Amino acid sequence: MSYKDTINLPNTEFPMRANLSERELDFQKIWEENNIYEKAVKNREGKESFILHDGPPYANGDIHIGHALNKILKDFVTRFATLKGYYSPYVPGWDTHGLPIEHQVKSEMSDQERKDLSVEELREKCTNYALKYIDRQREQFKRLGVWGEWDAPYLTLSPEYEVKQIEVFGEMAKKDLFYRGKKPVHWCPHCETALAEAEVEYGEDRAPSIYVKFPLKEKFEVGGVSLNKDNSYVVIWTTTPWTLPANMAIAFHPEYPYVVVEAEGENLIMAKELVSNVMEISGIEEYEIISDEFSAKELENKKCRHPFEDRDSLLILGEHVTLEQGTGCVHTAPGHGHDDFVVGHQEYGLDVYAPMDNRGYFTEKAGDFAGKSTDEVNIMVTDKLKEKNLLMDLSFIDHQYPHCWRCKGNLLFRATDQWFASIDAIKEKTLKAISEVEWHPSWGEERMKNMISERSDWCISRQKKWGVPIPIFYCDDCEEAVINDDTLDSVKKIFAVEGSSAWYKYPAEKLLPKDYSCPHCDGSSFTKEEDIMDVWFDSGSSHKAVLETRENLSWPAQIYLEGTDQYRGWFNSSLLTAVATEGRAPYNEVITNGFTVDDKGNKMSKSQGNVVSPHKVIDQYGADILRLWVASSDFKNDVKVSDNILKQNSEVYRRIRNTYRFVLGNVSDFDKEKNYVKYEDRKELDRWIMIRLQDLIKKVTSAYEKYEYHRVYHDVHNFCTVEMSSLYMDITKDRLYTDGTDSLSRRSAQSTLYDIMMALVVMLAPLLPHTSEEVWQFLGDKVAAKESVFLSDWPELKKAYYDQELTAKWADLLNIRKDVSKALELARADKKIGNSLEAGVELKGASEAQLELLENELEQLADLFIVSQVELNDQLSEGEAYLGEESSVLVKVNEAKGDKCDRCWKYDESVGKGEEHKDICNRCASVIESE
RNA sequence: GGGUCUAUAGCUCAGUUGGUCAGAGCGCACGCCUGAUAAGCGUGAGGUCGGUAGUUCAAAUCUACCUAGACCCA
Length: 931
Hints:
- There is one protein chain.
- By secondary structure, this protein is an alpha+beta fold.
- It contains 29 helices and 35 strands.
- The two termini are about 15 Å apart.
- The model has no long low-confidence stretch (mean pLDDT about 95).
C-alpha cells in the first residue's frame, strides 16, 4: 500500500510562480476599493507624526527609472513608519509651471495659432498639458505600488498653492529681501523676448573679429618697464564690436603671465603666450618683448581710457579668461555678457550698462549710436576706432553663435531688469540652519554649505508666461515698486478664486484694493510686473503651501528624500524660503539617493541604448521585483541597473517566495487558537530558530530606521536561505510530514513556522507590498482580524527568548553538522550513498566537552544530520574517518542499517518486522495506529 | 576648471577606532534528491580589495598622485 496518504504533505494554493505583472493589479485594486492606505494611516491617528514631504516631479513625460527609484524609496519610508506605529500620511505632488511645458505647448502649434494666442489661452493650454501628464504619471507611480493620497495630490498650479506661494513671496518682500537689478539674458530682438538656455540653438555664424587698443589712463610701471599713457595700450579682442560702447572693464587672468610688447613705436600689454599669434594676425613682423613677465595682479584696479566714450575702463581679474583666442585681455561689458556680469558687476561692482531696446536698437543713452542696429553699430565702431588709430586689426571669422529656437535669428546678450532675492542677507542664518539638519549621507552637509556659501543672489524673475506672476505693482507717477499687506491681500483673494491667471485677465486697478493710492506719492495709476517667478520658487514654497495648509501634515517635515541633483534644486530653494520666513530649515532630515546608471556605472542615455524602462521591468517581472532591486541597492551611491541585475533580484524573490510557500503549505491544518505551542514548550531546534528570528527582527528594524534597506534585503535573504531553507525547513520536514498530525513535535514546528511567517511578512511588507498582501490573504483565518497586512503591527522583539546556553550548544552542533555534510558528500562521491538517509554515521568527539555534547544529544543527531542512524564510536581513527575542519569531530559514513521505511523513508532495523505494517518502521506504525 | 562623492569575487553587499590565511548570499560548475519539484539539499572553483608611490613592525582600512565613473556648477 502507499503510505503517502498517511503523511502530512504541504498543502497550499499559494502559487510557486508569482505572475506578478498581472496579480499585482488585483491587490492594488483591493487596496483601493477597501481604502487600505486611508485605514492604515487612520490606524495611527494620535501617534507621533513622521512626515515625508514629497519633492514634486515635473509634470511632463513618462516616469523613468530614476523616478521609480525615488518614489519607491519614499514608499519604503512611509510604509515602514506606518507599520512601526507612526502617523505618516504621504501627499504626493507635482511641479507644473515652467519653460519646458510652455515650450512644448507652443511647439505643438502653428505659427499663426501662436501669434493669435492670448496669455490666458496659453496658460489654459499649459494647465491642460500639465494635468494630462499628472494623470499619466499618477497611474505609473501607483503601478509601482506606491501608496499615498493620489486623489488629493498637491499641484503647484492650484489656486490654494499659488496663494501660499505669493504669501511666501510677500513675507520675503516685507523683510526687504528682494531688490531690482539688471542681469544679461539671451534676448531675441525679432521675437522681442528673453530666452532660456533651453531655447537657444548654437550654429555657425560670420562675425567681425577686431583687435582694439585701449590707451592707459595714466603712466604706470610693470614688468620692469615704465609705460607712458601716450603710447601704451592694453589690447583686447572681440567679435561683437557693438558691445564696445558698453565696455566697462578689461579682465585679466590672475595666474597667467603677461608682458609688454614694443611694436611700431607703441607698447602693448597682452598675455605672453598669445603675443606671436596677435602679431601674426595683425601683420606686424617687427616687435619685441621689452618687459619681464608680470602678473596681472599688478594691473588690478588700474585704468585705461575707453577708446571712444568719455569713460574709463577698469582693469580687473577673472578666472574665466582663457588663452585659446584673443589676447588674454578680455573686453568686459557687464550688460552684455554672463561672465562680464558675474565678474564685472558682482565682483567689482561695475555698472550693468546696455543701452538697447527690446527690438535690439540702441537707445538715446547711446549718443551717436542712438536708433542704430547692432550691424550698423559694428561698422560705426570700427570706423571710429580706425579714425582714432586704435584698431589693430579687422577680419571676419566663422564661429558658434546663439540663435533663437523659434525664428532662427541671431540672439543678443542684453541686460534687462530682474528681481533678485538677496542671499547675502540670510547666508549666515542659512548656514546655521544647515548644520541643524541631519544629512544622509553625512557629506551632504558640507556639499550644501559650500553651495550656499558660494551662491550669489537668486534671480527670481523669468520673462515667461507659464508661472506664478511676481505680485508687484509699479506706480505710474513715481515708478516705485509697490508690494505690501494691502496689495497682497487683495491679490490673494482674487487668486484664491480664479488662480494666478487673473493677473493677466485684469488691469492693475482690479487687482489692487479699491481706490488704492501709491504709498510713496499718492499716485493712483499702476502697472503690473510682467515677469513670473523662477519655478524653483514654486516648488521651494511647497513646505508652506502643503505642510501648513493640509490638516494632517505639519511644518517642518521630518524628511526630504530626493536625488543628489536636488542639493542645487529643491533642497536649496526650500531651504532659502524657509530660512527667510521661518528662520530654520523646512526639514529635520535630508536623504539623498544617487542616480541610476548602467551596469558599467555609466549614465543612461538613449544614444547609448542602456536605458532601463520601469514599464518594461514591470511588464516582464512585476513591480515587486523592481522594488526588490531598489531594496538591494545602497541607494546613497549611484545605483546600477541592468537585465542581469534584475534577473538576479528575481532569483532572490523566488527564494523568498518559496520560503513563504513552504510555510503556508505546512500550516494549512494549523489553528492558532487550538494548536499553538508556546515558546517554552517547543523543541530545541524550534527555540533556536526563534532566537535567530529575534536577531533578524533586531537587525532589520535597525536597518529600516537607518534607511539601510539593502541590509534588510541581505539579512532577510540570508535568513531565508541559510537558516530557513537549508537548515530549519530541511530538518523539520520529517517532523512535519511524518509525526502525528496533532503531535507536540509537529505542532511545535508549525507554531514556529507561524511565528516566523508573521514576522517576515510584516518586515518585508514595505519592500514587497504585493507579495506580502498575497501571503497575508493566504494566511486566511489565522489573521482574520486584520483585513490587510498593512493594518497589522511591526513584530515585537522577544528578548525573553534569548538563551545563551542553548545558542552556544547549537552553534557547536551546527558546526558538527557541517562536517557531517562534508563527510556525506565524500561518501556520495564514492557512490556509497545517494540520499543522505541511506547513511548511518559514526562519530567520535575531539574533546571531553564535545564527547559529552554528542552523548547528551545523541537522540536528535540523526534528525539534525538528516541521516538514518548516528552512533558514537570512541574507537574511530583518522585513517578510517573524515576529520572535520569545523569541529574536529571524526565522522565515518556507513550504509544505514535495516531497510527503508516506506512511510518516512528512513532506514531502520524495525522495518519488515512489524505484524500489521510490514513495510514501515516502528515509529511510523505507532503514528498510524494513534491517528 | 571648481564643489561633493564612488571604485572589495560575474552580480548585490559586509568588512568597528589599520593587526589571525579578505567574508556572505546569489550566479556558475559538479553531484544528490524526486513527498517544497519550472522546487529542495550538498560540495567546489572564483578577488594582486581601481592603479602607483608613500607612512607604519603591520593597510582593503591612513596620506599623495593617477585612472574610470556619478551629480551639481563653470
